[in-house]
Amino acid sequence: MSTYRPRVVDAQLDAYAALPAVAIDGPKGVGKTTTAAHRAQTVLRLDDPATLEVIQADPARLTRAAAPVLVDEWQHFPASWDLVRRAVDDGAPPGSFLLTGSASPRSPQTHSGAGRIVTVRMRPLTLPERGTTTPTVSLQSLLEGDGGKIDGESDWNLADYVDAILAGGFPGMLATPPQLRRTLLSGYIDRVIDRDFPEAGREVRNPSALRRWLIAFAKATGTTASFETIRDAAAPGHADPPARSTTIPYRDTLERIWISDPVGAWSPLDSYGLGKLTASPKHFLADPALAAVLLDVDADVLLSGQDVGPRVPRNGTLLGGLFESLAALSLQVFAQHAQAGLAHLRTQSGHREIDFLVHGRGRRHVAVEVKLTATPDHHDVAHLLWLKQRMGTALSDMVIVTTGRFAYRRADGVAVVPLALLGP
After folding, report:
1. Which residues partner with 409 through β-bridges?
2. Which of 97, 140, 294, 327 has a beta carbon 3.0–4.6 Å from 370's, enabling a disulfide?
């Protein structure tokens, strides 16, 4: 029997064990079943035809089984969601049900489960979860604003981060050789197009057009490019881009199957004198490795700084965008652990921008800039200091995430933290 690899989300699931039903959402292959099965006494795998046939014939088996009951890939039998919801209404005790799925319950026939089934998002493995780094700086501590010492030393260099980007955070692929892992990631994209879209209720009449759009979307990683820009970029050498009526469902379906993981624009309760802010989301796929395989790039291409793929405007290099995506994955997971949210900030003039803003309880905030550099300079911290001037004590801390070796606090108060040293 393989040893269970602990996940950051386990702490949240421990707390939610006091509730009768918890749903674990996320893209295929991130370890939802493994984590849930580690906590379950009965496992019902509804993607298994034999199990599905039995449950369809006698749905009450689902609620009679020994608890905790894991209903795995519940979307293969959507009625299972409502069965669990009704069981909660009827007084199911704490820890009765775990549901895992790779699609969200948005069909008209399925109740949202609000107030009955609590959902938890699960993402690919962060660097500490992969067992490759040991964090010394806690995002939760930064959010609490104790202004404590920032220290630690990492032996990672830029090439190590490139390897981590290309490797991805899907647990089942970690132990495979790099060449085979690339094949598996390419097959993952094929499955998204050929199976996951149809299973989510979205018929794909032109798979090649969807693939071109996905490639353009991957190129937009780390940008706030409009969906019109992405649509136009999806038609290189073609007379016409995909129809808007086609690409809007593409976007919605990507979010429904958890492959798109956008970071929304910050909408503060107080103006802080920031002026008008943009409302556009920042685009990310669930894992930067998916963007890399869609764009067909390897370590040599990324390190060379080549601009490959469709023309999507960006500041900086593609590697910078993919490094930011790797940082976004970590920040999403660690912010969720701290019961905080993640957003980005950009003024409508475009003169000021903060890559990420972690917003937590008690109106605490941490501003984070991600820089593909080992030694940030005064230009790299300028927007952080501008935000501090306006937010004052409402900004608990300022952080620059780097590819460098050391974690330390600058004289101006900005914490410099290599991504390999950042943890929950």
Report:
1. 415
2. 327
